[in-house]
Automatic annotation (TrEMBL):
GO terms for molecular function: NAD+ binding; UDP-glucuronate decarboxylase activity. It is found in: Cytoplasm; Golgi apparatus, Golgi stack membrane. The keyword Cytoplasm applies. This is UDP-glucuronate decarboxylase. Transmembrane segments: none annotated. It comes from Novosphingobium hassiacum. Its EC number is 4.1.1.35.
Length: 313
């Protein structure tokens, strides 16, 4: 049994991670300021003797005794991270400093939930971990992209300077139950619009592609990375390389929800990448990880979740 800290544990990915860690016998402390997360995501764990929850902002130091830290705290959707961009950068940078400081004090192994956004609007395709990215440092997405890039720098400097055991995971678009219904990300947008009988909004011409990883696959990769040998730090891409255009995704959601909604087109937001797709070779080689859940199966689970929560709200 490990004593594990999950920051951002009441969020979409964090809550699934807490579930999986508890199921395998770990003792989990979930820390969250509930900015985008919700206690409802972990309500089923409250009362479990292996689970604790603490309201805390990672921009402030934390003093707890743990052996492993998963640092997920950070709003992940553009609507949320652009709402208070200064706080977003602080969460990534001060949050990383505070969690790395904690890891150093208690000699814990620490994993950073980084992002494919560190590649910006990539000039190479698919992206391998040695690509340095094409990021606008002063645009409206930079609070997130540059915040996460700086956090990666801090992780590697703590590793080199203080010998910390670090793991950096670059997460590509992930979807599944417990996504925030209003977070503006394409999968939740399309599903919520379809279930409400509204037309599905496509930004740009809809030919831009994204890859979509189901949450169970993602959490599996995260745990494998944390458990990997100490000399493997990453960064490692975790994502599903299957590429779909926005139009293909919208049409699949329309078919699976059975809505009669249509597609409506709006201008593309600033700095929206045209194409993003992970090269997973490193994850396959070092973690023996590959995504298993098809887009269709993952969408069915996600639609079932939104169907039940939207009716209950
Ligand atoms: N979901 C994805 O597709 C994706 C892709 C790339 C990277 N990531 C990264 O994975 C992590 C989790 O993403 P998610 O999709 O679960 O998003 P989310 O918004 O559902 O979860 C983030 C959690 O962090 C908490 N949080 C935010 N600021 C905080 C702070 N200052 N102190 C404490 N808690 C704070 C939020 O309340 C929320 O519970 C994030 O770091 C995100 O950048 C996610």
């Amino acid at each position: 049994m490990n004593k594990v800290l999950v920051t951002g544990g009441a969020g979409f990915l964090g809550s699934h991670l807490c579930d999986r860690l508890i199921a395998r016998g770990d003792d989990v402390l979930c820390v969250d300021n509930f900015y985008t997360g919700n206690k409802r995501n972990v309500a089923h764990l409250i009362g479990n003797p292996s689970f604790d929850i603490m309201r805390h902002d990672v921009c402030w130091p934390l003093y707890v005794e743990v052996e492993r830290i998963f640092n997920l705290a950070c709003p992940a959707s553009p609507i949320h991270y652009q709402n208070d961009p200064v706080q977003t950068t602080k969460t990534s940078v001060h949050g990383a400093i505070n969690m790395l400081g904690l890891a150093k004090r208690v000699k814990a192994r620490i994993l950073q939930a980084s992002t494919s956004e560190v590649y910006g609007d990539p000039a190479v395709h698919p992206q391998t971990e040695d690509y340095w990215g094409n990021v606008n440092p002063i645009g409206i997405r930079s609070c997130y992209d540059e915040g996460k890039r700086c956090a990666e720098t801090l992780f590697f400097d703590y590793h080199r300077q203080h010998g910390l055991e670090v793991k950096v995971m670059r997460i590509f678009n992930t979807y599944g139950p417990r996504m925030h219904p209003e977070d503006g990300r394409v999968v939740s947008n399309f599903i919520v619009q379809a279930l409400r009988g509204q037309d599905l909004t496509i930004y740009g011409d809809g030919m831009q592609t994204r890859s979509f990883c189901y949450v169970d696959d993602l959490v599996d990769g995260m745990i494998r990375l944390m458990d990997s040998p100490a000399d493997f730090t990453g960064p490692v891409n975790i994502g599903n390389p299957g590429e779909f255009t926005m139009i293909e995704l919208a049409e699949t959601v329309i078919r699976l929800t059975g809505t009669s909604a249509k597609l409506v087109f709006q201008p593309l937001p600033q700095d929206d990448p045209k194409q993003r797709c992970p090269d997973n070779s490193l994850a396959k080689e070092k973690l023996n990880w590959q995504p298993k859940v098809s887009l269709e199966d993952g969408l069915k689970e996600t639609i079932a979740y939104f169907r039940s929560t939207l009716t209950n709200d």
